[in-house]
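batch_manifest entry 22 of 60
target: MOSC domain-containing protein
source organism: Muricoccus nepalensis
requested by: lab member K.T.
priority: normal
notes from requester: please return tokens only, no post-processing; we will run our own comparison against the previous entry in this batch. if the run fails, retry once and flag.
--- input ---
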Amino acid sequence: MSSLGGERLERAALTAAGIEGDRTHGVFHAESGEIAYPGRDRRWAALPRALSRLRADGALEVSTDGSIWGDPAGPRQAAALSAFLGFPARVRRYAGEGPRPRYNRAPIHLLTTSALRTLQTILPDSVIDARRFRPNILVDTPEELDGIPEYALRGRRFRIGGVTLRGTIPCARCAFTTLAQPGLPEDREVFRALLHRFGRDLGLYCEVEGAGSLRHGDAVLQPEPAPA
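--- output ---
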């Protein structure tokens, strides 16, 4: 769900629109209809500390404390979310004729552990964790590989498990990367480093050119040659 903490999946099905069940709902101000914008408006800054997950039957659940979960459309969870934020809020499903995601540049966002290690080297006192950057796919790269190797996949088609992807453009970052999450403190130095040392980008957007499924541990197969 947009803006809330997500979950780590052992297996995921990908379609042309991305991971099934991803970004299907958003949080809105119940009175004004305004969509959540944690990276820009401090009123929403607590939202990444709340959590969302999908049950085995595909139903969405949310929690504000990690222990009590429930249907976000139910009165109990709606009241808990409103109390958590300090103003009336509700969860709405994105729909063709209804509200749309605030930010939806690409169906898949891929990030490597090399990119995280490179940022950690620049910010040795910061807690650099993949959750700050919300990738759909985190690729574990060898310790000796530095820099941001995913950029070499721009314009190239490659496979992971049963899925074919094509790298497009770097992922532009915002102040969401600075916000506190469970186990992660607020840290404004993260976005400053991204802005001044990385041109604001980290990670790679991808299109899904061949739908299929991914499992934890699937290898990234040799990409096609880069276009001339």
